[in-house]
Structures are given as C-alpha cells and as structure tokens.
Amino acid sequence: MMWMLVVLLTGKFAFAATDGITGLKLIGMGMPKDKLSSMAVFLTPLQVLLPWMIGKYTASPRPLNVFLLSYPYRIFMGGVFAALVWWTPSFRLPDGDFPVTLYAIWVIGYCFHQVASYCMFVSMMAFNAQISDPKIGGTYMTLLNTLNNLGGNWPVTLILSLTGFFTFKDCVVKGTKTVLYSCNTKALADQCTKGGDVCELRIDGYYIAVAFCSLVGIIWFKALFSKIKYFQKIPRSDWSVMKK
C-alpha cells in the first residue's frame, strides 16, 4: 500500500511543467484567453469517446497496463509542447494576433496530449475501483482519488514556484546587444527599464522545467514500472481494509 501512495502522489510530477505552465506561456505571448479556452471544446468528444474505446482494457484484471503504455507517450508530448511554445512567436501577425493555422496546430497537439492524459486517468480510476473495499462504500475510492488528484496538484505548485529560479534575464542597452547586468529580480528589471534599457530574456525557465520534469519522469517510470505491474498481481482481497 505504501508504494501505491508513492505512485499516486508522485506519478504526475513528470507533467507538472507542461500542464501548469504551457497555457501561461501562450497567454504571455499574446494568445487571447478566450481562444485558448475555446480549444477545450474540441477535446470534449475525446473525453466522451476514450473511456468507451479503452473500456475493454481498463475493465480487465490489468487496467494499469494502459497507464504504463501512456506514461512515456505523455512525457514525449511534453517535449512536443515545449517545441510548439518555442515555435509559436514566429507565427505572430503584424496586428499581434495569430493565424488560424497555429490554433489548429495547438488543437491537434492538445488532442494527442489528451489521449495520453485521459488514458492514464481512466486506467488509474479503473484500478482504484477494482481494489476499493466495498464494505466501506465509496470512502476507499474517494481516498484514492483524492490522493491521485493531490499528486497532480502539488507538483504544479512546486514547479510554478521554482521556474523563476531557472529563468535568466539580461539588462541590455536599447538598440544594441551590450549587456549591462543581470535583471533576474523585479527590482533589477524595474531599474533596467527606468534607465531606458531593455530587460531581455536570455534563458527561459519553462524549457528547463520541462526538461527537468521529463528527466524525473523517465527515472520514475524506470524505477516503478515493475512495482506498478506487481500491483495488478496482488489479489484484490488483499487491498481490503476490513478482512474477513
């Protein structure tokens, strides 16, 4: 049970930067919030169809096989998202907006990402349902789901707080490439702009955060792959709280 807690609480760290910062980066680049939010409309059919499509696999005695298959694919999609974020500014139109083509690319990207994300979610929920002790109603299931949700929230909070430390900016003389000093803090950035200079981004912490989370995810996957496989071999009765 202890290893199950570890999986639930740490399994989504690999996706924290992608899930928590990508949308903020797009908004920071000038993508309207309403258009970004409207992308979710295209994901709704996937959310409806995917549980039906993978139902026969998640209803099997080994539903976590879907989780294990989706995990590396979702890490890969984190790299794809980072590449798309890097590529997005080159699409900016003179009026500051972005072409429909870019929105279409992002919708497709989010659809592929959603496949991995939702497959992981459904498979884990299916396993939680299988091992929950029916003698205590939905309390067991609720506890497992709460831990699973917590495991998806705390990494995002942590990465959001750390990304600033991965970001490096230089105060540059306006119109030149001459670097005066680093302006990583708000005070130094204000000092730079007040002096008529420009605080330019040198290293974007988003990409470092994505790379770091992905590396942790790869290590996590290799370390706990056999454990997750073993969970499915444990008799369901052994997960019960109230033994006969």
Automatic annotation (TrEMBL):
Keywords (alphabetical) are: Membrane, Signal, Transmembrane, Transmembrane helix
Domain of life, source organism: Eukaryota
Q: Which N-terminal residues, if any, form the signal peptide?
A: 1-16
Gene that this sequence comes from: Slc33a1
Q: Where in the cell is it found?
A: Membrane
Gene Ontology CC, one term: membrane
Name recorded for this polypeptide = Acetyl-coenzyme A transporter 1
SUPFAM superfamilies tied to this protein = MFS general substrate transporter
Report TM segments: 36-54, 66-88, 100-127, 147-168, 206-225
The membrane topology noted for this protein in its Swiss-Prot or TrEMBL record is: Multi-pass membrane protein
Q: Which InterPro entries match?
A: AcetylCoA_trans_1-like, AmpG_permease/AT-1, MFS_trans_sf
KW Transmembrane (keyword) present: yes
Its BP terms in the Gene Ontology are: acetyl-CoA transmembrane transport
The uppermost taxa in this organism's lineage are: Eukaryota, Metazoa, Ecdysozoa, Nematoda, Chromadorea
Keyword Transmembrane helix (UniProt): yes
According to the UniProt entry, its GO molecular function terms are:
acetyl-CoA transmembrane transporter activity
